[in-house]
Amino acid sequence: MIELAKLSLLVVVDARRAPSAARAVRRAVAGAGRSMSVISDPGRDSRLTWSKHAEYEARKELSAIATKKCDAHLAAFSRCAQEQNLMVVFNCREENRKMNACLSQYTNEAAFEEYKLRRSIELAKQGKKGGA
Asked: In this structure, are residues 36 and 127 in contact, taking their beta carbons and an 8 Å threshold?
């Protein structure tokens, strides 16, 4: 089941240019019987397009995932920062470097594109299950 509050993904469909796609999206959303978000525009060469808000929400989700995976590095930097107070800039450089390396590993542009693709496939599967 797709939860609108969790995903908050929107579709951008120009009803004048692709009226059949707009109708299909409205039917899919209305026919599901629950709040459902659609992320792709089926009227554009089968290319997945994301609205700005959908990308923002996906980046927030990916950031939360990265934070969970890098929890040890975040805790180490936090502990060092609390101990060093104003000297944190100088004395916690290594912890900061490790924390940033870990976070950037999960939130770089390539990882984001992979996450969007994975998420799109999940939503498509869930949409088919809900509609069938």
From this structure: yes
For residue 22, CA distances in Å to 29, 41, 99 come to 11, 9, 44
Q: Provide the strand spans (E) within 12-76.
A: none
Provide Rg for the chain, Cα atoms: 20
What is the per-residue burial (b if ≥16 Cβ within 10 Å, else e) of 48-84?
A: eebeeebeebbeebbeeebeeebeebbebbeebbeee
| Sign of the dihedral defined by the CA atoms of residues 94, 100, 105, 110, in that order | negative
Give the tens place of pLDDT for each residue, 60-113. Answer: 999 999 999 999 999 999 999 999 999 999 999 999 999 999 999 999 999 999
pTM of the model: 0.56
